[in-house]
Amino acid sequence: MIILLSCTVQGCEKKSLYVPEDTKFEKNIIAMDTYMTLTAYGEEAEQGLEQAADRIQEIEQVFSVTDETSEIYQINHRTAQEMEVSEECAKVLEQALEISTQTGGAFDVTMYPVVREWGFTTGKYRVPGEEEIQELLSKTGYEKLSLNHRTLTLQEGMEIDFGGIAKGYTGDEAVAALKKAGVEHAIVNLGGNIQALGDRPDGTAWNVGIRDPIQSEEMFGTLQVSNQAVVTSGAYERYFEENGVVYGHIMNPDTGRPADNGILSVTVIGDKGIICDALSTAFFVLGLEGTTEYWQTYGGCEIILVTEEKQVYVTEGIQDKFQLTGDYGEVICIKKE
Ligand code: AMP
Ligand code: MG
Description:
- This protein is an alpha+beta fold.
- About 30% of the residues lie in helices and about 25% in strands.
- Strand 11 and strand 12 form a beta hairpin.
């Protein structure tokens, strides 16, 4: 189990303008192999947190790749190439495919056969041989998958995994459940994937700490956000070492090997957790140049990227909302051209 906590919710000292600080409620749950902390304020907070936690458990039961009763497990162990999937699964898959297209296939939910053989879902870590990797790659490729409303067609041997997108989607859904219960101020921390609902109770922005990819128990910067998702991808989250080489859990779909494009971590900030999550995984594969190119073409999010040279790049939209606190030199701004 990985315990990732990279969010600090700063205490609010002055008297709240809207919601008293003493209406703060917190709920901790373990789901998706992750320690999650949900914090909400106001009269509806307690009930909202219950509903958000229920929703998280519900999603886990649909998307787990290892739970034999999950829908994803059923899809991966189907008996026919074509099958009907739930509306929820179709919705996430549709979003995943859109990001796959926009990122030139850097994000690809069909990488599961490769991810598994490297041991990232089983814990039996190993480096597969080149021939085996090529064989595995013949079972991947999002273009080979077709989704027509709820009808999914997957070629034999192909499998899917929402590991790169599920937590972002879950953040969206947890916040939606809180909102539905009438909560206006909340912050959800799904193992480092942060999702804010509104502002802090005193009307100021939330302060979110961004995990240091080198000293991964520390933070290397803080960011002010309101009503947004903050999602980070980095090899430090799950990796193994063999003969002095570190192998991370994010795969380059072109090579079938862990992405090795000069990035230590990449954080994506935006309105929707599902998009931020898929993009952070894709950007990790694309590297600085590919990420910059994506952002200058599509925009729609803000980015904090740390390279292996310990350079920190930040897109111009959040430049004044990010403060570097770690030992990383100065922040380099990525501008729209
Ligand atoms: P994240 O932490 O969101 O970047 O997601 C990483 C997880 O997504 C991995 O543990 C795999 O389950 C899965 N994954 C690995 N490589 C890719 C990829 N290129 N595209 C989509 N999902 C991936
Ligand atoms: Mg992701």
